[in-house]
Amino acid sequence: MTPSAAKSAAPARNANAVAQINVEGMTCAACQSAVQQALTTAPGVRKATVSLMTNRAEVEFDPALTNIDDLARRIDQTGFNASLPSLAETSFEAQQRQDAAAEAEFHSLRRRAFLSLAAAALAMLLSMPLMTMAEAHGHGGGVLPGLGWLMSASEALLRSLFPWLYGMQPSGLRWILAALTTAVMAGPGRVFYQRAWAAARHRTADMNTLVAVGTGAAFAYSLAVTIVPGIFGVRGVAAEVYYEAVVFILALVLLGNSFERQARHRAASAIRQLAALQPPVARVLRDEVVHDVPVEKLRPGDLVLVPPGERVPVDGIIHSGVSSVDESLLTGESLPVSKQAGDPVTGGTLNHEGALRYRVTRTGADGMLARIVQLMRDAQSSQAPVQRLADRISAVFVPVVIGIALVTFLVWWVAPTEPSLAQAVGVAVTVLIIACPCAMGLAVPTAVLVATGRGASMGILIKGGEPIERLSGVDTVVFDKTGTLTEGKPTVTDWIALDGVAGDAVLAEAAALEQASAHPLADAVVRYAHGAGVTIPATSEVLNQPGRGVTGMVGEQRLRVGSALWLREEAIDRVDQAERVAEGLRADGKTTILVARGNTVVAVAGIADTLKPGAAHAVAQLRLMNLGVHLLSGDRRESAAAIARETGITEVHAEVLPEGKLEVVRELQMLGRKVAMVGDGVNDAPALAGADVGIAMGRGADAAGEAAAVTLMRSDPASVADALALARVTMRTMRQNLFWAMIYNVIGISVAAGALFPAFGILLSPALASAAMAFSSVSVVANSLRLKHTSLRYRKR
Length: 797
Known about the structure:
The structure is a single chain. The protein is α+β, with helices and mostly antiparallel strands. It is 52% helix and 18% strand. It has 29 helices and 26 strands. Strands 14-26-25-24-15-22-23 form a seven-stranded mixed sheet, with helices on both faces. Helix 5 packs antiparallel against helix 7, helix 7 packs antiparallel against helix 14 and helix 15 packs antiparallel against helix 27. The longest helix is centred in the N-terminal third of the chain and has 46 residues. The radius of gyration is 35 Å and the shape is elongated.
């Protein structure tokens, strides 16, 4: 076992640690339940979550009472193999290792399934003469009982192709079938018996137990008939064998497992796609010479060259070069983003037309791509609360099914007017084989796996199954204003020159002064001037006056840019006229500044934090989904009201301090609302943490992301509606899966036990039961895979 590898050894407020353990050998919900039970009952364990999909356990425990090695040994004692992830292993390496193991398991399952199917076909061929003899003596049985026409057609074909087969003695055929069946049970099917024995030694039971007991009982009965057939004849019991049924069961279960493994592998494709974005080698510039350096050896400060058409290896800041970068697989944004010196780049993104040189800032597990991959791995290992019902059923499922099979055997041995031990054995085996705890174990995790993957492709990172379930129940969305619905930076919206003054000339002069100021409003004026294409002149004697404005010489004229109060103090003319213009702008929630040339005001600028494109449409989508929408802001009431009017929001909470934002969320919750809070700043973190679901804009502060259950990689309010719609369709898929898994077992076990026999004469064979069992698991996974392409509907529930 490798050294201890706690995912987060740093104690939280309750001094607990959280660690992850790899668990190999789980095949169904009963296995998952056994491991989870072993961990949750261990001393010092506060919480344990086990994922059948990712074969991982996440444990929160008190380091003073237990440690990760003891927990791993506890898993080993339940009959499964526990291993600890290496501390040096990155999320990329962990994913590659998991993918390689899954690929190897799939190929092994498929190879064993095909061998078993070939053996099953041979067993069926050898069994036909025995079935014919049984029918001739008035006894039913075989792989497809009740389909007499098929039996007759198959017999005629085989007699013409293999006449020598019908000339063999029954005892010889039975011994050949016994040898073939033994070879399949000891070869391709050995794993079922090994796992069932391991479970029995640790006093647990799982799907392997059902397969092993069912096929073992059929084989034991058939072997007894083969060794001492006379005893059965003397006692009036048909000397029938179920060798071909045993081989078919093992073959079909193996085939079903291989399909299930492949479907589960496809369900996790989003993580693999993300992990594959990082190139293995970076082009590092040292003394103007390019060296190919493995990505894992990059260090902060390295200067990396990214030619056009290649991917950015790790995160950094552009040193030189101009290009556009495709960030679609990280953010879901389809259009390339323009980049130049000073702009950040993210590992895994694709550089387009220009060569870039950039300085590395983050490597390994600290990089954005690695953090996203780790977040998705953690999310896909989590459980949704709706899974708890399936877990409770799975914990007792196998013992209950074995009990039903025993009762079924006794009823069919005693109740019929002409009791048949062979038929009783066949029906009991069918009950054992058709039962499927796997479908219940896969119902929720597969949906979570596919949904988090699809969310990531849309630039929506959801931290697991529980946030999905909570998000699906949201009925109220609260938006922070700044940086969430708005751009988060002041922008000049109005530039009004007074009384025929040349507006562009005044704008150029004002921008010349504002270049010397670090004030956000000054930056807005400079950006507006650049956008207008004006030529900015030189200045002299520039002086910043905090809280008032900036003054300086532009040519022979003194220019002042600042507040009306300051200009009045300076005895500047026409301030009152300018203020009448400014009042109209302030009524729309805009901040105003005045520009004076010499002793006269010549221009008024209106500046506002402008609405993001599509914000109004996003709010309309939420209303279409029957959701209440609130606006929350620390800004002036006029500014908040202006944004509310533009977006169509009627519920506005303005001039609210950070702690007040949390109070607003709690007040809504006290009214019975399920609240999603959307924010992007440190001051939003308390409200994000206190809401039923916190949604953080990806370009916001790290504290917001830590407090949120959902992170939007694009600063696009429309992503909020996407996340809610995805959560709703995912919950619907989870419920469909659980319903199908449960109703399948209720109906399947009933039919297998003979519920339809009195009225319709219908009995299932063990081989058909194994096919139905395999289909049930694959159908659940296939239904979850539909989430990859299901359209998101923005409508009332």
